[in-house]
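comment on this one:
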Amino acid sequence: MKNTQNNIRKIVVVALFGILFSSCEKHLENLYDNPNAVTTIDDSALFTKAVRSLFQGTTDQASARFAGQYAHYFVAGSTWRAPDQYGDGFDGDYNSMLKEGYSGTIRHIEEVLLITSTAGTQNNVRHAMADIIAVLGYAKMTDAFGDVPYNEGGKGKSENIIQPRYDSQQSIYTDLIARLASSIAVLKTANPELGYPGSDPIFDNNLDKWVRLANSVRLRLAMRLRYADPGLSQSTVVQCLSEPLMETPEHDAFMIETEGTGNAWFTRRTGFPSIKMSTFLIDQLQNTSDPRLSIFVSQDGSGQYSGITNGLTDQAFGNSNFANLSDMGLALSSPESKLFVMTAAETWLLRAEAALAYDNDPTAANSFFRNGIEASLNQWGVEAAEISDFMASPIATLSGNNDEEQIGVQLWLALTPNYFESWSHIRRTGFPVLPVRTDPGLHQGATNGIMPKRFNYPSFEQSSNATNLQEAISRQGANKIDTPIWWDKN
């Protein structure tokens, strides 16, 4: 009996030790760790979590503290305003954005991809849907930093790669486009019952809309390569035009956040950090009688639309009457406001640019341009009479003189409130043309007054993965915010 009790005690001790060891092991996971050992979790729940993380990422620090200010949509208050001055002393922020990029959408979707490709749980339809989300997650990471871990990223546990190699952005983009092509091929003829019925927060398992999303994202990536790899860009555009694309707001990829206080822009409009809309944005909308003004911007206490200039010095900011300026519009910043990752409006405007760049067809470009503007107006519920009036204005027709700029400005507006993509759009096209900061009341920062080109690699990564990081830096250029990433040629 005594031996039996001793054995039981030993078993309990071993079990407790195993639990403790497991907890410690999880706590020490690498930045790029991918806990692929967890295969008993329902992949539908993981898929939903990854999708929600992707949409929540459109309001994260990369957008709210950096891209939204870089792209001249607004100015944040308090300490969040610092990036608007084009500084680069944000090592902790760069580290958290790099870490969260991998630990959020990418981590969860990599689990889904493993489960749906493993014998016994293999599902090509679910795998194709998950690949689309993975592409969007990885695209944001490489567009933020340039070269990043891709082939070896997320392999900490499954392959014991704790110091992943960095892949060139060129190779990453090539693979992302190929992954989208594979997903489209699978989903075009797939059985919806094999997808995610009941667990798809975007399209409710409508595979036609998933195909349109994949193809529209592929078009976005293709046009992003326009100046870096014209051959791949043009050939990919041709492929995109042979498959269904987003055409109406019914095809838009959006989600409404239902947990907590809802849309994060709501808390930033009503709490910390407060944000006020940019004079640059308000002037563009007011000067063209754009009906989206009242949607994107709220009136101030005097019933006017009053903005703040981006890049003010501390002294100039102190004299700006910041608290009384226009807030973000209620349509963008209410708890139930939609979060977007891809829209029909963006797709049409990308097609307009492609028609000019690759087909030299100004007639088609103008038709696509007008479709894009109208899709954006409909996306935001603009009244039919206002749509008709705006579409009759010169703004809604390509002039033949500055067509690329016209398209670029309208795409910048249509991307609202997906501000990270807007920053990428300006980096690629140069439109809208942002003012270079030469006025003594404006802060030139670390870039001589030019909009930053990327986020810096953080010091943590430099100390923990130095060899691979230095290889990326030697290939890409100095680890500075004014070093352009591979596709940025403007």
About this structure: The first strand starts at residue 74 and ends at 76. The longest helix spans residues 2-27. The chain has two domains: 43-263+334-436+453-476, 264-333. The two ends are 81 Å apart (CA to CA).
